């Protein structure tokens, strides 16, 4: 129970006070009316005695009464109607609201911190009014009239006559059986005669004399002269006089109003007091109109006949409630007691005091004494009589008891003068004068009697009061008998069905229990009384119960909340909306954020509804918002209802303030970090053969790997443009900003190019949401064309389409629990700074069946239905949090976020805009296939474009042709069925010998210093005019590896005008090429042993080329023809084909393998001399009748590109190696002689059947030969993945890489060959010794001078050699020391001597070689040549 | 009306959301109570106060019906870890409910043993 202003010890005596009736003459009433008060009201503020009063109890003990209060009221002859009371209570409660600035108590219980208003003034005023408006009943006498004041005015003609009239009237009311209602305590009621005297108007003398007369007639104790109205009311009330009535004012006015409304049942005293009906009208008018007509000039004019409408008769009681409300409102301005001075106040106070001391208390004292005497005298007799009769009858009539009981409950059992009631009466009197001891004992006795008689209503009343008086006894000799109360309540409620009495009982009991801190009992009591019949009572009691729970020693917070909810529910049923809302709000504190979502939703929903009906729209909106934005467990239908309600409320809010800022909508959710911004036009779809560059689009998923690649490409091209250095202010161009991109800078957008913002929406509800008129909300600061910033920053928001065009999506449907993105466009028409703030849209839902099936995916077909549903306009802001900063220490230790500027683009001046289209661009190629395509460059902007470059990681994939004149037709249409190569028809005779041409790599853009990846596009004028387009041929070569290749092109271009902000622009393209296997070429080169080369001085080589058709899967490919094999080298060239196969065309069917053998020569020295180091010699060996000029585009292009990419790879490998070795030139020299730089180009044609058409595809493969004797492949061999090594825990020994060249390498330093006759006939019988001349040719392969030692002594250590039957010997000098110059050939004449016939191996000479400038280091090695067999025959 | 049950597991901190929630209605009433689902939560939530009080008064994990609202009884079971099982039922059937609680307790223990389950998080 909440804290109250009054303590229970004050409350109960104040609730039960002696009642005094007041009966006024109309003249007296008129006097008081001048103050806008009735007589009873006039006395009200002074009805409490300030001093202590003494009285004597029946035992002549002195008894002190403190703070006695009396209640004076006009006589009302009808019992108050329950309906009226209910209405009154309702108004009292709704009139009392929590104060605005009330400081709420903070109660901490467990995890909960609750703000709870500790007081409940509405409850207190309810209780007060309730107790006051209790109808008097027969079983108790507490609110029966003890006395009656008869009031007349001194201004009356016959005041004494009037007094006797009033006295008669009172007597009539009390004793006439017509009037059952105003209950009187005892038959002879105390009459107290009061003469009212108007000081300002009346004659004082006369009043005094009348008073004297009265004194004589009624005795000094029984009459009083009350002087009031000491000043005229028309005087301006500038004097501040305390207005003690104000606190009663509102209640009174309500009471009055009620009495009007209830019309016939309320009759004011004066109506009855005057028998003459003439005055009745006027009086009625006065009473009724006193309040509404208070604006009249002077109250005195009331005497005049008032307007006819009011004077008709009593029918006008039925006034419309509205006018009464006005009455009530007008009432607030009235000053009460305007004619009263402070002296008058004192007089009234004095009067009350006098009345109580002289009149009332002695009367009470006397009555108690009488009653006591009666009881004492009757006690013995009646008690014995009673019990005797009881015994007599009850013994036999037990079953009748129940019937008796029933009768008791409904009807009156005792006659008014029954002795049992006398006890009760005495008890009540004692109680009223605060003599609780006596009261208790009397109640106790009465209770016993009533219980004996089974008079349950009476018993309950006695029990109740016994309990109360026991509690109030000073010093509390006995504990509070709570069970008395319980029994009383139960009896009232269950047996008597009298809820009003039960309620009073509960209110008292709960208050008492509360004062004893028995909160749980109090709560139980309060809850027990909640019932269906009165919502208001139930609500108030539940609320008090809730307060009990929270005030317990260990607060039961959740019980509190629950009962608050129940109370709120009841309040709302009772129409007390504000209280209901307050209860729900208080309970919300407990439920908020605890995960009891259904409960929370319900509360929020109710709060929203209540707030809405109370026109607290903001609260309503926020409450509904809560329901919608949390993850809800509600069913779809429920959510739909919530949403509709929300929209409805929202609509009302927005209608209230149509010009206000757009409200923020909670739905749908926006994942703002997923917002993507794209600058530029949408990609054009493929147009026939034309295929636009893929560029960047919102459809592409972010891929960090590829974005890194693009970035590298851009850096590369920028570095090339800026002569190798990347400018410090370089930032990669970003066309699409997302959460991964670098958003720390303001992005740059170009004027007249659209900006697309992709907003990610998510619908958390199970109801589809429909957004209509969805567009972006932005702010724009235009920049003047003059260049200087506008001083006054004009901020334009939306709507100004002259500056920025905004695209509006008319309908956007998000299905239940769906995530969907919307792409919204802006078209900037002016330069300046743009800030995209958010989105603005109408939020609505789809009504009816659409929600159920939820298939409304096609927006078009539901258009009609959409428009029917309700929608509200609102906005949602896009606020993107930047990445968390993590650079400095400070940033690491705190949580800071960087800015995210992706929504704040700067619109810059016009830039050229390039569009690239590819024509005839293949999607599938054979490995190595050459295809010709065309690229179209279009400048779609209004600025000229220059510096077009393209960069790719795979430059070997494509070429625009070299600088040499382009012979192929320029337009794509003319190139049908034309070979991609440049060909020349040759006669077939020349086929075995090579045709030689040469070309420099510089011509093909492959220089040493430049990056091969960056290729300038050969635009005809190097500038592309606005709107111009250029088509260029482009050759493609299928990558050597089979599979799907994604090849990225980055086109770079600049404006002709230099722009400070944007230096360049880029365009991306990703080509996807699927390659399938074609040919596999492997080649080896080895030294030719033959030296008898007429022209080749520096040695010659044999080149073996194996070509295998590995294309198996493709059914379409019939066969491959090798049409030409070319060599390209700086030092070597192919000379001729060695094996002339019959198959002239060198056809290769599926899985067939062909072998070619060629002879290669070192280029002539003079050729080499004239050549720059970058000049390559191309030699073509043709198998068909057409020569493909390998030194021209595109063949050479691709050759150079593959070469350079190959070089790159090997350089990377070699760089470490080379560094180490560079110090030792010697070793390098030795190695060099093993190296060869011969490159083989295999050109082929493939015959493919496709769609019953035969196509001829062309292609080329490259093999790069570097080392003699080592096999090289056309495509990189798949490397086996390195086997997993055992983990070593010790340090591997530092394996010293031997700086010595390997044996094999050294062995290649000197090439030897023996020249001798293969068989030699010798007549052994003629000459036993056979001498054979043998020539040993030594040729130096290296470029340095070499010392050679030739040792002819037999030194074979192998056992096999020993077994050779019959050896031979070399004759002559057995060791030669020679020095061979670079690439010198020396022949040595030797003689071999044989003694037998047979087959001999001549390969015994051991040749040691060393570099001449080295000392002894490499003196090793010999030629491990093939056995040189000679047959010696005997002739 | 009779035969409907509502079962909820509440973690031992006040601020945590309910761990598990289940409603079982007699078949023919499946739809009609839809509007009053929040009432169950209200009742269970209010009963927590009494559960917290009663669990110190009893040695058993199973607390007999701790609360009553109109026709609805609230039975509770408090585990050793102060997880509170609360059952709303409208017919008195102590044995059945006790057995149910014990079964649920066994299941809960098994579930809580799961190393990937974080105590007090919704199941």
Automatic annotation (TrEMBL), chain B:
Pfam families: Sedlin_N
Entry keywords, A to Z: Cytoplasm, ER-Golgi transport, Transport
Gene Ontology CC: one annotated term: endoplasmic reticulum-Golgi intermediate compartment
Molecular-function annotations in GO: transcription corepressor binding; transcription regulator inhibitor activity
SUPFAM superfamilies linked to this entry: SNARE-like
Signal peptide: none
PANTHER family listed in its UniProt record: TRAFFICKING PROTEIN PARTICLE COMPLEX SUBUNIT 2
Descriptive protein name: Trafficking protein particle complex subunit 2B
Organism: Otolemur garnettii
């Amino acid at each position: 129970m909440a804290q109250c202003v009054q303590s229970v010890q004050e409350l109960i005596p104040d609730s039960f006070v002696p009642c005094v009736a007041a009966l006024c003459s109309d003249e007296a009433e008129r006097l008081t009316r001048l103050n806008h008060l009735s007589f009873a009201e006039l006395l009200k503020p002074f009805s409490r005695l300030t001093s202590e009063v003494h009285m004597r109890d029946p035992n002549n003990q002195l008894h002190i009464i403190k703070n006695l209060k009396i209640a004076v009221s006009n006589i009302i002859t009808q019992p108050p109607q329950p309906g009226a009371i209910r209405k009154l209570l309702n108004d009292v409660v709704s009139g009392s609201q929590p104060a605005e600035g009330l400081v709420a108590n903070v109660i901490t219980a467990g995890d909960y911190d609750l703000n709870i208003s500790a007081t409940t003034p509405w409850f207190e005023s309810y209780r007060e009014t309730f107790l006051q408006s209790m109808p008097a009943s027969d079983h108790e006498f507490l609110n029966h009239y003890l006395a009656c004041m008869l009031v007349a005015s001194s201004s009356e003609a016959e005041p004494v006559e009037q007094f006797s009239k009033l006295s008669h009237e009172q007597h009539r009311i009390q004793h006439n059986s017509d009037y059952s209602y105003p209950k009187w305590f005892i038959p002879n009621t105390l009459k107290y005669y009061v003469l009212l005297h108007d000081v300002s108007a009346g004659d004082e003398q006369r009043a005094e004399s009348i008073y004297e007369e009265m004194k004589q007639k009624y005795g000094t104790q029984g009459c009083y002269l009350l002087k009031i109205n000491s000043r005229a009311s028309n005087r301006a009330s500038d004097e501040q006089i305390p207005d003690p009535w104000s606190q009663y004012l509102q209640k009174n006015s309500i009471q009055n109003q009620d009495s009007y409304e209830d019309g016939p049942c309320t009759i004011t005293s004066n109506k009855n007091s005057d028998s003459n009906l003439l005055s009745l009208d006027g009086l009625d008018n006065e009473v009724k109109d006193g309040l509404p007509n208070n604006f009249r000039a002077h109250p005195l004019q009331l005497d005049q006949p008032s307007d006819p409408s009011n004077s008709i008769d009593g029918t006008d009681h039925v006034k419309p409630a509205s006018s009464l409300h006005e009455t009530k409102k007008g009432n607030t301005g009235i000053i009460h007691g305007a004619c009263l001075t402070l002296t008058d106040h004192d007089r009234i106070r004095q009067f009350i005091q006098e009345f109580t001391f002289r009149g009332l208390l002695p009367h009470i004292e006397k009555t108690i004494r009488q009653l006591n005497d009666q009881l004492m005298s009757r006690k013995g007799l009646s008690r014995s009589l009673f019990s005797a009769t009881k015994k007599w009858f009850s013994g036999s009539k037990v079953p009748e008891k129940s019937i008796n009981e029933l009768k008791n409950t409904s009807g009156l059992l005792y006659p008014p003068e029954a002795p049992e009631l006398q006890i009760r009466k005495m008890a009540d009197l004692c109680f009223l004068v605060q003599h609780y001891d006596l009261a208790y004992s009397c109640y106790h006795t009465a209770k016993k009697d009533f219980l004996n008689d089974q008079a349950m209503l009476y018993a309950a009343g006695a029990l109740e009061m016994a309990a109360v008086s026991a509690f109030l006894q000073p010093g509390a000799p006995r504990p509070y008998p709570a069970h008395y109360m319980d029994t009383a309540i139960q009896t009232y409620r269950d047996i008597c069905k009298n809820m009003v009495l039960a309620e009073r009982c509960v209110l008292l009991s709960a208050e008492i229990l509360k004062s004893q801190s028995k909160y749980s009992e109090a709560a139980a009591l309060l809850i027990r009384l909640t019932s269906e019949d009165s919502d208001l009572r139930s609500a108030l009691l539940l609320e008090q119960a809730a307060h009990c729970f929270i005030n317990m020693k260990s607060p039961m917070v959740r019980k509190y909340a629950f009962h608050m909810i129940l109370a709120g529910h009841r309040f709302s049923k009772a129409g007390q909306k504000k209280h209901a809302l307050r209860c729900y709000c208080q309970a919300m504190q407990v439920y908020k954020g605890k995960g009891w979502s259904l409960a929370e939703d319900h509360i929020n929903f109710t709060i929203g509804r209540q707030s809405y009906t109370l026109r607290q729209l903001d609260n309503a909106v926020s409450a509904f918002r809560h329901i919608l934005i949390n993850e809800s467990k509600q069913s779809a239908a429920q959510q739909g209802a919530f949403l509709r309600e929300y929209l409805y409320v929202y609509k009302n809010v927005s209608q209230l303030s149509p010009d206000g800022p757009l409200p923020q909508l909670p739905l749908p959710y926006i994942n703002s970090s997923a917002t993507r911004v794209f600058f530029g036009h949408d990609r054009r779809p493929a147009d026939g053969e034309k295929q636009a560059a893929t560029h960047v689009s919102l459809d592409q998923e972010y891929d960090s790997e590829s974005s890194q690649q693009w970035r590298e490409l851009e850096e590369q091209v920028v570095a090339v443009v800026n002569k190798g250095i990347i400018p410090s202010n370089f930032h990669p161009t970003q066309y699409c900003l997302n959460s991964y991109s670098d958003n720390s800078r303001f992005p740059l957008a170009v004027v007249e190019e659209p900006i697309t913002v992709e907003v990610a929406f998510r619908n958390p509800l199970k109801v589809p949401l429909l957004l209509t008129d969805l567009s972006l909300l932005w702010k724009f600061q235009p920049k003047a064309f003059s260049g200087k910033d506008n001083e006054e920053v004009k901020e334009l928001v939306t709507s100004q389409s002259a500056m920025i065009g905004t695209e509006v999506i008319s309908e956007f449907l998000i299905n239940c629990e769906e995530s969907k993105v919307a792409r919204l466009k802006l078209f900037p028409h002016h330069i300046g700074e743009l800030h995209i703030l958010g989105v603005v849209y109408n939020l609505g839902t789809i009504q009816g069946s659409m929600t159920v099936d939820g298939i409304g995916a096609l927006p078009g077909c539901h258009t009609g239905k959409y428009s029917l549903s309700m929608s509200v306009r609102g906005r949602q802001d896009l606020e993107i949090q930047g990445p968390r900063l993590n650079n400095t220490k400070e940033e690491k230790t705190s949580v800071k976020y960087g800015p995210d500027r992706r929504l704040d683009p700067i619109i810059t001046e016009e830039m050229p805009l390039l569009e690239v289209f590819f024509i005839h661009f293949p999607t599938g190629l054979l490995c190595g296939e050459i295809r010709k395509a065309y690229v179209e460059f279009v400048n779609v902007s209004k600025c000229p474009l220059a510096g077009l470059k393209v960069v790719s990681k795979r430059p070997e994939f494509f070429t625009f042709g070299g600088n040499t004149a382009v012979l192929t037709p320029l337009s794509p249409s003319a190139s049908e069925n034309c070979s991609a190569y440049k060909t020349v028809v040759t006669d077939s005779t020349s086929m075995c010998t090579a045709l030689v041409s040469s070309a420099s790599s510089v011509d093909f853009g492959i220089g040493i210093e430049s990056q091969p990846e960056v290729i300038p596009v050969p635009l005809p004028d190097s500038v592309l005019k606005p709107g111009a387009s250029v088509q260029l041929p482009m050759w493609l070569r299928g990558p050597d590896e089979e599979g799907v290749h994604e090849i990225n092109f980055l086109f770079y271009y600049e404006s002709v005008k230099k722009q400070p902000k944007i230096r360049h622009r880029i365009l991306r393209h990703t080509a996807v090429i699927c390659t399938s296997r074609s040919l596999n070429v492997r080649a080896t080169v080895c030294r030719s042993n033959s030296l008898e080369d007429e022209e080749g001085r520096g040695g010659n080589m044999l080149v073996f080329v194996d070509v295998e058709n590995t294309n198996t899967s493709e059914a379409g490919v019939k066969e491959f023809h090798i049409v030409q094999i070319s060599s390209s080298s700086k030092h070597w060239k192919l000379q001729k084909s060695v094996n002339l196969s019959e198959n002239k065309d060198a056809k290769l069917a599926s899985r067939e393998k062909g072998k070619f053998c060629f002879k290669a020569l070192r280029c002539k020295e003079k050729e080499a001399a004239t050549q720059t180091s970058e000049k390559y010699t191309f030699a073509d060996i043709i198998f068909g009748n057409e020569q493909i000029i390998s030194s021209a585009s595109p063949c050479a292009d691709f050759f150079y590109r593959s070469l350079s990419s190959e070089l790159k790879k090997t350089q990377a490998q070699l760089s470490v190696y080379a560094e180490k070795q560079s110090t030792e030139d010697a070793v390098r020299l030795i190695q060099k002689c093993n190296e060869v730089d011969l490159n083989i180009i295999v050109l082929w044609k493939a015959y493919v059947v496709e769609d019953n058409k035969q196509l001829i595809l062309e292609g080329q493969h490259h093999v790069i030969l570097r080392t003699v004797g080592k096999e090289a492949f056309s495509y990189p061999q798949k490397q086996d993945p390195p086997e997993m090594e055992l983990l070593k825990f010790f340090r591997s020994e530092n394996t010293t890489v031997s700086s010595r060249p390997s044996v094999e390498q050294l062995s290649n330093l000197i090439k030897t060959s023996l020249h001798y006759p293969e068989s030699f006939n010798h007549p052994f019988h003629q000459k036993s010794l056979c001498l054979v001349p043998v020539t040993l040719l030594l040729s130096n392969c290296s470029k340095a001078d070499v010392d050679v030692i030739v040792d002819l002594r037999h030194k074979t250590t192998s056992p096999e050699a020993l077994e050779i039957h019959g050896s031979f010997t070399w004759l002559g000098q057995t060791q030669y020391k020679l020095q061979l110059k670079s690439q010198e050939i020396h022949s040595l004449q030797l003689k071999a001597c044989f003694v037998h016939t047979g087959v001999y191996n001549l390969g015994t000479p051991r040749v040691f070689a060393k570099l001449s400038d080295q000392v002894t280091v490499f003196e090793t090695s010999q030629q491990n040549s093939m056995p040189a067999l000679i047959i010696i025959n005997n002739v | 009306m009779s035969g409907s049950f509502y079962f909820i597991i509440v973690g031992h901190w006040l601020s945590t959301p309910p761990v598990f929630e289940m409603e079982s209605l007699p078949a023919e009433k499946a739809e009609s109570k839809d509007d009053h689902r929040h009432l169950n939560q209200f009742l269970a939530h209010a009963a927590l106060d009494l559960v917290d009080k009663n669990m110190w008064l009893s040695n058993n994990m199973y607390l007999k019906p701790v609360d009553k609202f109109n026709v609805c009884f609230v039975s509770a079971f408090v585990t050793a870890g102060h997880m509170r099982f609360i059952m709303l039922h409208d017919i008195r059937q102590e044995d059945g409910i006790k057995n149910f609680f014990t079964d649920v307790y066994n299941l809960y223990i098994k579930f809580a043993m799961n190393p990937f389950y974080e105590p007090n998080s919704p199941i």
